[in-house]
Write a structure and sequence with these properties.
This protein has 467 residues and is α/β, with parallel strands linked by helices. It has helices at residues 3-26, 34-47, 77-80, 85-90, 102-111, 139-142, 149-160, 193-210, 229-242, 299-311, 330-346, and strands at 49-53, 64-65, 68-69, 116-122, 163-168, 218-221, 247-248, 260-261, 276-281, 315-320, 365-369, 375-379, 384-389, 392-397, 405-409, 415-420, 426-427, 429-432, 435-439, 450-456. It has eleven helices and 20 strands.
Length: 467
Protein backbone atom coordinates (compact mmCIF):
# COMPACT_ATOMS: atom_id res chain seq x y z
CA UNK A 1 0.00 0.00 0.00
CA UNK A 2 1.31 3.42 -0.97
CA UNK A 3 0.17 5.88 1.72
CA UNK A 4 0.84 9.18 -0.04
CA UNK A 5 -1.08 8.38 -3.26
CA UNK A 6 -4.01 7.14 -1.16
CA UNK A 7 -4.06 10.34 0.88
CA UNK A 8 -3.90 12.35 -2.33
CA UNK A 9 -6.89 10.41 -3.77
CA UNK A 10 -8.90 10.99 -0.60
CA UNK A 11 -8.12 14.69 -0.74
CA UNK A 12 -9.29 14.83 -4.36
CA UNK A 13 -12.52 13.07 -3.42
CA UNK A 14 -13.17 15.47 -0.57
CA UNK A 15 -12.48 18.41 -2.84
CA UNK A 16 -14.97 17.06 -5.36
CA UNK A 17 -17.60 16.80 -2.65
CA UNK A 18 -16.99 20.32 -1.32
CA UNK A 19 -19.03 22.23 -3.94
CA UNK A 20 -22.02 19.95 -3.36
CA UNK A 21 -21.78 20.46 0.37
CA UNK A 22 -21.47 24.20 -0.09
CA UNK A 23 -24.47 24.28 -2.41
CA UNK A 24 -26.52 22.38 0.17
CA UNK A 25 -25.48 24.82 2.90
CA UNK A 26 -26.48 27.82 0.80
CA UNK A 27 -29.75 26.24 -0.35
CA UNK A 28 -32.58 28.28 1.14
CA UNK A 29 -35.65 26.72 -0.50
CA UNK A 30 -36.42 23.03 -0.37
CA UNK A 31 -35.44 20.90 -3.36
CA UNK A 32 -38.27 19.09 -5.11
CA UNK A 33 -38.84 17.59 -8.53
CA UNK A 34 -41.00 19.34 -11.11
CA UNK A 35 -43.67 16.67 -10.63
CA UNK A 36 -43.67 17.22 -6.87
CA UNK A 37 -43.93 20.96 -7.27
CA UNK A 38 -46.68 20.68 -9.88
CA UNK A 39 -48.70 18.46 -7.55
CA UNK A 40 -48.22 20.85 -4.62
CA UNK A 41 -49.20 23.92 -6.67
CA UNK A 42 -52.04 22.27 -8.61
CA UNK A 43 -55.02 23.60 -6.63
CA UNK A 44 -53.59 27.14 -6.57
CA UNK A 45 -52.95 27.18 -10.32
CA UNK A 46 -56.48 25.93 -10.94
CA UNK A 47 -58.03 28.54 -8.60
CA UNK A 48 -56.83 31.74 -10.32
CA UNK A 49 -58.99 34.05 -8.19
CA UNK A 50 -58.90 34.65 -4.43
CA UNK A 51 -59.99 37.07 -1.73
CA UNK A 52 -57.48 38.97 0.41
CA UNK A 53 -58.81 40.23 3.76
CA UNK A 54 -57.04 42.93 5.79
CA UNK A 55 -58.76 43.12 9.15
CA UNK A 56 -57.57 44.20 12.57
CA UNK A 57 -57.50 46.88 15.27
CA UNK A 58 -56.64 49.53 12.67
CA UNK A 59 -60.28 49.35 11.55
CA UNK A 60 -61.22 51.16 14.78
CA UNK A 61 -59.42 54.49 14.07
CA UNK A 62 -60.23 53.87 10.38
CA UNK A 63 -57.68 56.41 9.15
CA UNK A 64 -58.11 59.08 11.88
CA UNK A 65 -56.01 59.91 14.94
CA UNK A 66 -57.15 62.65 17.36
CA UNK A 67 -59.91 63.47 14.86
CA UNK A 68 -57.35 64.22 12.14
CA UNK A 69 -56.90 62.15 8.98
CA UNK A 70 -53.61 60.29 8.77
CA UNK A 71 -52.21 60.04 5.24
CA UNK A 72 -51.47 56.64 3.78
CA UNK A 73 -53.12 53.26 3.84
CA UNK A 74 -55.41 52.39 6.76
CA UNK A 75 -53.52 49.47 8.30
CA UNK A 76 -50.35 51.59 8.59
CA UNK A 77 -51.98 54.26 10.78
CA UNK A 78 -49.91 53.42 13.87
CA UNK A 79 -46.69 53.87 11.89
CA UNK A 80 -47.71 56.84 9.76
CA UNK A 81 -49.33 58.65 12.70
CA UNK A 82 -46.46 57.73 15.08
CA UNK A 83 -49.04 56.60 17.63
CA UNK A 84 -47.49 55.49 20.96
CA UNK A 85 -47.98 51.84 21.86
CA UNK A 86 -50.21 52.55 24.86
CA UNK A 87 -52.54 54.76 22.84
CA UNK A 88 -52.74 52.34 19.95
CA UNK A 89 -53.38 49.36 22.18
CA UNK A 90 -56.31 51.21 23.72
CA UNK A 91 -58.10 50.90 20.34
CA UNK A 92 -58.45 47.17 21.03
CA UNK A 93 -60.97 47.94 23.76
CA UNK A 94 -63.27 49.32 21.02
CA UNK A 95 -62.71 46.39 18.67
CA UNK A 96 -65.87 44.32 19.07
CA UNK A 97 -66.91 42.86 15.69
CA UNK A 98 -70.27 41.49 16.81
CA UNK A 99 -71.61 41.69 13.23
CA UNK A 100 -68.89 39.39 11.89
CA UNK A 101 -70.46 36.49 10.01
CA UNK A 102 -67.87 34.07 8.65
CA UNK A 103 -70.51 32.22 6.64
CA UNK A 104 -71.56 35.43 4.88
CA UNK A 105 -67.96 36.43 4.13
CA UNK A 106 -67.04 33.07 2.61
CA UNK A 107 -70.28 32.85 0.66
CA UNK A 108 -69.60 36.32 -0.79
CA UNK A 109 -66.18 35.10 -1.92
CA UNK A 110 -67.62 31.91 -3.41
CA UNK A 111 -70.40 33.79 -5.19
CA UNK A 112 -67.76 36.11 -6.66
CA UNK A 113 -66.07 33.09 -8.22
CA UNK A 114 -63.17 33.11 -5.77
CA UNK A 115 -61.60 29.79 -4.81
CA UNK A 116 -59.47 30.77 -1.80
CA UNK A 117 -59.16 33.35 0.96
CA UNK A 118 -56.04 34.81 2.57
CA UNK A 119 -56.65 36.79 5.79
CA UNK A 120 -54.29 38.79 7.98
CA UNK A 121 -53.64 36.60 11.01
CA UNK A 122 -51.20 39.32 12.17
CA UNK A 123 -50.37 42.57 10.42
CA UNK A 124 -47.50 44.99 11.15
CA UNK A 125 -49.16 46.32 14.30
CA UNK A 126 -48.50 42.89 15.82
CA UNK A 127 -52.15 42.33 16.77
CA UNK A 128 -52.98 38.63 16.48
CA UNK A 129 -56.40 37.91 15.02
CA UNK A 130 -56.28 34.48 16.64
CA UNK A 131 -55.93 32.86 20.04
CA UNK A 132 -52.21 32.88 20.87
CA UNK A 133 -50.20 32.01 23.94
CA UNK A 134 -47.16 33.97 22.75
CA UNK A 135 -48.55 37.47 23.43
CA UNK A 136 -51.61 38.96 25.15
CA UNK A 137 -51.90 41.43 22.25
CA UNK A 138 -54.59 39.41 20.48
CA UNK A 139 -58.31 39.45 19.72
CA UNK A 140 -59.20 36.89 22.40
CA UNK A 141 -57.46 38.58 25.34
CA UNK A 142 -57.34 42.27 24.41
CA UNK A 143 -60.84 42.92 23.05
CA UNK A 144 -64.42 42.64 24.31
CA UNK A 145 -65.09 40.25 21.42
CA UNK A 146 -62.99 37.54 23.04
CA UNK A 147 -63.23 34.93 20.25
CA UNK A 148 -61.02 33.57 17.47
CA UNK A 149 -62.57 34.54 14.09
CA UNK A 150 -60.10 32.40 12.15
CA UNK A 151 -61.77 29.26 13.53
CA UNK A 152 -65.12 30.44 12.19
CA UNK A 153 -63.58 31.25 8.81
CA UNK A 154 -61.96 27.82 8.65
CA UNK A 155 -65.31 26.17 9.32
CA UNK A 156 -67.06 28.30 6.69
CA UNK A 157 -64.34 27.58 4.10
CA UNK A 158 -64.85 23.86 4.68
CA UNK A 159 -68.59 24.30 4.22
CA UNK A 160 -68.27 26.17 0.91
CA UNK A 161 -65.23 24.34 -0.45
CA UNK A 162 -62.73 27.21 -0.40
CA UNK A 163 -59.10 27.07 0.67
CA UNK A 164 -58.00 29.30 3.56
CA UNK A 165 -54.61 30.95 3.86
CA UNK A 166 -53.03 33.19 6.48
CA UNK A 167 -51.03 36.39 6.03
CA UNK A 168 -48.41 36.78 8.77
CA UNK A 169 -46.15 39.81 9.27
CA UNK A 170 -43.00 38.01 10.34
CA UNK A 171 -40.59 40.95 10.56
CA UNK A 172 -42.46 44.18 11.22
CA UNK A 173 -44.24 44.14 14.56
CA UNK A 174 -44.71 47.57 16.11
CA UNK A 175 -46.02 46.29 19.45
CA UNK A 176 -44.18 43.02 20.12
CA UNK A 177 -40.65 44.15 19.35
CA UNK A 178 -40.15 43.40 15.68
CA UNK A 179 -38.82 45.74 13.02
CA UNK A 180 -40.47 49.04 12.06
CA UNK A 181 -40.13 50.60 8.63
CA UNK A 182 -38.78 54.11 9.02
CA UNK A 183 -37.57 53.45 12.56
CA UNK A 184 -39.28 53.21 15.95
CA UNK A 185 -40.96 56.25 17.52
CA UNK A 186 -41.83 55.07 21.04
CA UNK A 187 -39.23 54.02 23.67
CA UNK A 188 -41.57 51.17 24.61
CA UNK A 189 -40.90 49.61 21.20
CA UNK A 190 -37.21 49.04 21.85
CA UNK A 191 -36.67 45.32 21.81
CA UNK A 192 -34.16 42.75 20.56
CA UNK A 193 -35.17 41.48 17.12
CA UNK A 194 -33.86 37.95 17.69
CA UNK A 195 -35.77 37.76 20.96
CA UNK A 196 -38.93 38.75 19.09
CA UNK A 197 -38.33 36.09 16.43
CA UNK A 198 -37.74 33.37 19.04
CA UNK A 199 -40.53 34.27 21.47
CA UNK A 200 -43.27 35.74 19.27
CA UNK A 201 -42.89 35.03 15.55
CA UNK A 202 -41.83 31.38 15.61
CA UNK A 203 -44.32 30.31 18.32
CA UNK A 204 -47.18 32.16 16.59
CA UNK A 205 -46.37 30.67 13.20
CA UNK A 206 -46.42 27.24 14.81
CA UNK A 207 -49.82 28.06 16.31
CA UNK A 208 -51.44 29.17 13.06
CA UNK A 209 -50.04 26.10 11.31
CA UNK A 210 -51.34 23.72 13.98
CA UNK A 211 -54.73 24.93 15.22
CA UNK A 212 -56.94 25.06 12.12
CA UNK A 213 -57.02 21.53 10.75
CA UNK A 214 -56.01 21.30 7.10
CA UNK A 215 -55.60 25.08 6.93
CA UNK A 216 -53.75 27.25 6.16
CA UNK A 217 -53.19 26.20 2.56
CA UNK A 218 -51.14 29.38 1.98
CA UNK A 219 -48.72 31.27 4.24
CA UNK A 220 -48.37 34.84 3.02
CA UNK A 221 -45.31 36.63 4.47
CA UNK A 222 -44.83 40.38 4.17
CA UNK A 223 -42.17 43.14 4.34
CA UNK A 224 -38.96 41.32 5.32
CA UNK A 225 -37.32 44.23 7.16
CA UNK A 226 -34.13 43.10 8.99
CA UNK A 227 -34.79 39.45 8.09
CA UNK A 228 -31.34 37.94 7.70
CA UNK A 229 -30.97 34.30 6.70
CA UNK A 230 -30.64 33.07 10.29
CA UNK A 231 -33.94 34.67 11.35
CA UNK A 232 -35.75 33.59 8.22
CA UNK A 233 -34.45 30.04 8.55
CA UNK A 234 -36.04 29.66 11.99
CA UNK A 235 -39.43 30.46 10.50
CA UNK A 236 -38.85 28.43 7.36
CA UNK A 237 -37.77 25.38 9.34
CA UNK A 238 -40.84 25.63 11.56
CA UNK A 239 -43.04 25.63 8.46
CA UNK A 240 -41.25 22.70 6.85
CA UNK A 241 -41.51 20.69 10.05
CA UNK A 242 -45.27 21.21 10.41
CA UNK A 243 -46.61 21.86 6.88
CA UNK A 244 -44.10 20.93 4.17
CA UNK A 245 -46.77 21.05 1.43
CA UNK A 246 -47.94 24.60 2.17
CA UNK A 247 -47.60 27.31 -0.48
CA UNK A 248 -45.50 30.31 0.56
CA UNK A 249 -44.89 33.59 -1.22
CA UNK A 250 -41.57 35.33 -1.88
CA UNK A 251 -41.58 37.83 1.01
CA UNK A 252 -40.02 35.84 3.87
CA UNK A 253 -36.58 37.36 3.33
CA UNK A 254 -33.19 35.88 4.13
CA UNK A 255 -32.68 34.66 0.57
CA UNK A 256 -35.80 32.50 0.37
CA UNK A 257 -37.50 32.71 -3.04
CA UNK A 258 -40.72 30.99 -1.98
CA UNK A 259 -43.27 29.63 -4.44
CA UNK A 260 -44.93 32.75 -5.83
CA UNK A 261 -44.02 36.20 -7.04
CA UNK A 262 -46.27 38.89 -5.55
CA UNK A 263 -46.62 42.10 -7.60
CA UNK A 264 -48.69 44.55 -5.54
CA UNK A 265 -51.24 46.99 -6.98
CA UNK A 266 -49.95 46.34 -10.50
CA UNK A 267 -50.16 43.79 -13.31
CA UNK A 268 -46.74 43.20 -14.87
CA UNK A 269 -46.59 43.72 -18.62
CA UNK A 270 -45.65 40.13 -19.47
CA UNK A 271 -46.25 38.30 -16.19
CA UNK A 272 -43.45 36.15 -14.76
CA UNK A 273 -42.66 33.44 -17.32
CA UNK A 274 -41.44 30.32 -15.55
CA UNK A 275 -42.67 31.44 -12.10
CA UNK A 276 -46.02 31.16 -10.38
CA UNK A 277 -47.28 34.64 -9.55
CA UNK A 278 -50.18 36.48 -7.99
CA UNK A 279 -51.17 40.14 -8.23
CA UNK A 280 -52.67 41.43 -5.00
CA UNK A 281 -54.81 44.52 -5.37
CA UNK A 282 -57.25 46.66 -3.41
CA UNK A 283 -60.85 47.41 -4.34
CA UNK A 284 -60.32 51.06 -3.39
CA UNK A 285 -57.07 52.79 -2.34
CA UNK A 286 -56.33 51.05 0.94
CA UNK A 287 -56.08 47.52 2.33
CA UNK A 288 -57.42 47.99 5.86
CA UNK A 289 -60.70 49.83 6.37
CA UNK A 290 -60.42 53.62 6.10
CA UNK A 291 -63.70 55.44 6.50
CA UNK A 292 -63.14 58.20 3.95
CA UNK A 293 -61.72 56.02 1.16
CA UNK A 294 -64.49 55.81 -1.42
CA UNK A 295 -62.34 55.58 -4.54
CA UNK A 296 -63.78 52.24 -5.64
CA UNK A 297 -62.57 50.44 -8.76
CA UNK A 298 -65.29 49.82 -11.32
CA UNK A 299 -66.56 46.33 -12.06
CA UNK A 300 -65.22 46.80 -15.59
CA UNK A 301 -61.72 47.37 -14.21
CA UNK A 302 -61.95 44.35 -11.90
CA UNK A 303 -63.14 41.92 -14.59
CA UNK A 304 -60.64 43.13 -17.15
CA UNK A 305 -57.87 42.94 -14.55
CA UNK A 306 -58.84 39.31 -13.93
CA UNK A 307 -58.74 38.58 -17.67
CA UNK A 308 -55.41 40.36 -18.05
CA UNK A 309 -53.80 38.50 -15.15
CA UNK A 310 -55.08 35.09 -16.28
CA UNK A 311 -53.84 35.79 -19.81
CA UNK A 312 -50.33 36.13 -18.40
CA UNK A 313 -50.54 32.97 -16.27
CA UNK A 314 -51.14 34.64 -12.90
CA UNK A 315 -53.65 34.67 -10.04
CA UNK A 316 -55.71 37.64 -8.83
CA UNK A 317 -55.90 38.20 -5.05
CA UNK A 318 -58.50 40.94 -4.58
CA UNK A 319 -58.75 42.62 -1.19
CA UNK A 320 -61.61 43.63 1.10
CA UNK A 321 -61.15 45.66 4.29
CA UNK A 322 -63.90 44.92 6.85
CA UNK A 323 -65.04 47.43 9.46
CA UNK A 324 -64.45 47.15 13.20
CA UNK A 325 -68.01 45.81 13.47
CA UNK A 326 -67.09 42.90 11.21
CA UNK A 327 -68.81 44.02 8.01
CA UNK A 328 -67.39 43.99 4.50
CA UNK A 329 -68.25 47.43 3.03
CA UNK A 330 -71.31 47.38 0.81
CA UNK A 331 -69.52 48.80 -2.28
CA UNK A 332 -67.10 45.85 -2.05
CA UNK A 333 -69.98 43.35 -1.85
CA UNK A 334 -71.76 44.92 -4.80
CA UNK A 335 -68.68 44.71 -7.02
CA UNK A 336 -67.90 41.16 -5.94
CA UNK A 337 -71.44 40.10 -6.84
CA UNK A 338 -71.10 41.69 -10.28
CA UNK A 339 -67.78 39.94 -10.90
CA UNK A 340 -69.44 36.70 -9.76
CA UNK A 341 -72.25 37.11 -12.30
CA UNK A 342 -69.63 37.39 -15.06
CA UNK A 343 -67.71 34.39 -13.71
CA UNK A 344 -70.82 32.18 -13.70
CA UNK A 345 -70.97 32.58 -17.47
CA UNK A 346 -67.28 32.92 -18.34
CA UNK A 347 -65.32 31.28 -15.52
CA UNK A 348 -64.29 28.46 -17.84
CA UNK A 349 -61.96 30.96 -19.51
CA UNK A 350 -60.24 31.70 -16.17
CA UNK A 351 -60.07 28.58 -13.97
CA UNK A 352 -57.22 26.18 -14.69
CA UNK A 353 -56.02 28.08 -17.74
CA UNK A 354 -52.53 28.88 -18.94
CA UNK A 355 -51.13 32.01 -20.54
CA UNK A 356 -51.86 33.31 -24.01
CA UNK A 357 -50.12 31.59 -26.94
CA UNK A 358 -50.21 34.86 -28.90
CA UNK A 359 -48.79 37.80 -26.93
CA UNK A 360 -49.35 40.51 -29.49
CA UNK A 361 -52.64 41.45 -27.84
CA UNK A 362 -50.74 42.54 -24.72
CA UNK A 363 -49.14 45.38 -26.66
CA UNK A 364 -45.86 46.92 -25.64
CA UNK A 365 -44.62 47.27 -22.08
CA UNK A 366 -45.24 50.88 -21.11
CA UNK A 367 -44.20 52.87 -18.08
CA UNK A 368 -46.86 53.49 -15.42
CA UNK A 369 -47.34 54.02 -11.70
CA UNK A 370 -48.52 51.34 -9.30
CA UNK A 371 -50.97 51.95 -6.44
CA UNK A 372 -48.23 53.59 -4.35
CA UNK A 373 -46.87 55.88 -7.05
CA UNK A 374 -43.89 53.63 -7.79
CA UNK A 375 -42.63 53.20 -11.35
CA UNK A 376 -43.73 49.99 -13.06
CA UNK A 377 -44.57 48.65 -16.51
CA UNK A 378 -47.94 47.46 -17.76
CA UNK A 379 -49.39 46.21 -21.04
CA UNK A 380 -50.49 48.83 -23.55
CA UNK A 381 -52.91 46.50 -25.33
CA UNK A 382 -56.56 47.01 -24.40
CA UNK A 383 -58.77 45.24 -26.96
CA UNK A 384 -58.64 41.57 -25.95
CA UNK A 385 -56.94 38.88 -23.89
CA UNK A 386 -56.51 35.13 -24.32
CA UNK A 387 -56.09 32.01 -22.18
CA UNK A 388 -55.77 28.34 -23.06
CA UNK A 389 -56.58 24.81 -21.93
CA UNK A 390 -55.74 21.58 -23.76
CA UNK A 391 -57.62 21.73 -27.05
CA UNK A 392 -59.21 25.12 -26.31
CA UNK A 393 -58.43 28.80 -26.76
CA UNK A 394 -60.49 31.41 -24.90
CA UNK A 395 -60.67 34.87 -26.46
CA UNK A 396 -61.86 37.58 -24.06
CA UNK A 397 -62.92 40.56 -26.16
CA UNK A 398 -63.11 43.95 -24.42
CA UNK A 399 -63.93 46.16 -27.41
CA UNK A 400 -66.47 44.49 -29.68
CA UNK A 401 -65.55 45.05 -33.35
CA UNK A 402 -68.07 47.15 -35.25
CA UNK A 403 -67.50 45.21 -38.50
CA UNK A 404 -68.42 41.88 -36.88
CA UNK A 405 -65.03 40.29 -37.55
CA UNK A 406 -62.31 39.30 -35.12
CA UNK A 407 -58.91 37.99 -36.16
CA UNK A 408 -56.66 35.57 -34.31
CA UNK A 409 -53.37 36.30 -36.06
CA UNK A 410 -50.99 33.46 -36.80
CA UNK A 411 -53.09 30.60 -35.39
CA UNK A 412 -51.85 27.50 -37.22
CA UNK A 413 -53.69 24.78 -35.26
CA UNK A 414 -56.74 23.39 -37.08
CA UNK A 415 -59.93 24.92 -35.68
CA UNK A 416 -62.79 22.47 -35.12
CA UNK A 417 -65.43 24.93 -33.96
CA UNK A 418 -65.95 28.29 -32.27
CA UNK A 419 -68.75 29.52 -30.02
CA UNK A 420 -69.64 32.14 -27.41
CA UNK A 421 -69.53 31.00 -23.79
CA UNK A 422 -72.69 33.03 -23.24
CA UNK A 423 -75.41 30.74 -24.59
CA UNK A 424 -72.90 28.58 -26.52
CA UNK A 425 -73.96 30.17 -29.81
CA UNK A 426 -71.85 28.69 -32.62
CA UNK A 427 -69.81 31.10 -34.72
CA UNK A 428 -68.69 30.85 -38.33
CA UNK A 429 -64.98 31.21 -38.99
CA UNK A 430 -62.47 31.29 -41.82
CA UNK A 431 -59.00 29.80 -41.45
CA UNK A 432 -56.08 30.71 -43.69
CA UNK A 433 -52.30 30.63 -43.43
CA UNK A 434 -52.50 34.08 -41.84
CA UNK A 435 -54.71 32.88 -38.99
CA UNK A 436 -58.40 32.65 -38.14
CA UNK A 437 -61.17 35.19 -38.66
CA UNK A 438 -64.24 34.82 -36.47
CA UNK A 439 -67.67 36.06 -37.56
CA UNK A 440 -69.31 37.70 -34.55
CA UNK A 441 -72.92 38.75 -33.93
CA UNK A 442 -73.73 42.45 -34.12
CA UNK A 443 -74.14 42.90 -30.37
CA UNK A 444 -71.65 41.89 -27.69
CA UNK A 445 -73.11 39.40 -25.21
CA UNK A 446 -71.29 41.20 -22.39
CA UNK A 447 -70.49 44.92 -22.24
CA UNK A 448 -67.28 44.34 -20.23
CA UNK A 449 -65.69 41.19 -21.68
CA UNK A 450 -67.30 38.71 -24.07
CA UNK A 451 -65.67 35.29 -24.36
CA UNK A 452 -65.30 33.12 -27.46
CA UNK A 453 -64.13 29.52 -27.11
CA UNK A 454 -62.14 28.22 -30.07
CA UNK A 455 -61.69 24.45 -30.06
CA UNK A 456 -58.64 23.16 -31.88
CA UNK A 457 -57.51 19.71 -33.04
CA UNK A 458 -54.24 19.84 -31.08
CA UNK A 459 -53.77 19.88 -27.33
CA UNK A 460 -51.49 22.93 -27.56
CA UNK A 461 -52.10 25.92 -29.80
CA UNK A 462 -49.53 26.50 -32.51
CA UNK A 463 -49.09 30.17 -33.38
CA UNK A 464 -46.79 31.54 -36.05
CA UNK A 465 -44.45 34.32 -35.02
CA UNK A 466 -45.82 37.71 -35.95
CA UNK A 467 -43.66 40.18 -37.83
Amino acid sequence: MKIKPLIFMIALALAALAPAASAQTNQTDKVETKAQRDARMAWWREAKFGMFIHWGVYSVPAGYYHDQPVPGIGEWIMNKGKIPMAEYQAFAKQFNPVKFDADAWVKAAKDAGMKYIVITSKHHDGFAMFDTKASPWNIVQATPYGKDPLKDLAAACRKYGLKLGFYYSQAQDWNNGGAAAGGKWDPAQQHDMDDYIDKIAVPQVKEILSNYGEFPAVLWWDTPHDMNQERAKKLYDAVQQLRPDIIMNNRLGGGYKGDTETPEQKIPAKGFPGRDWETCMTLNNTWGFKRDDNNWKSTTTLIRNLCDIASKGGNYLLNVGPTSEGLIPQPSLERLAEVGAWMKVNGEAIYGTTATPFGGELGAAVKAKDGYGHDTTVSSGNDWRCTTKPGKIYVMIFNWPANGKFELPGLQSKVKKAYLLAGHKKLKFEQTEAGVTLALPAAAPDKIASVVCVEIAAATAKVAAQK
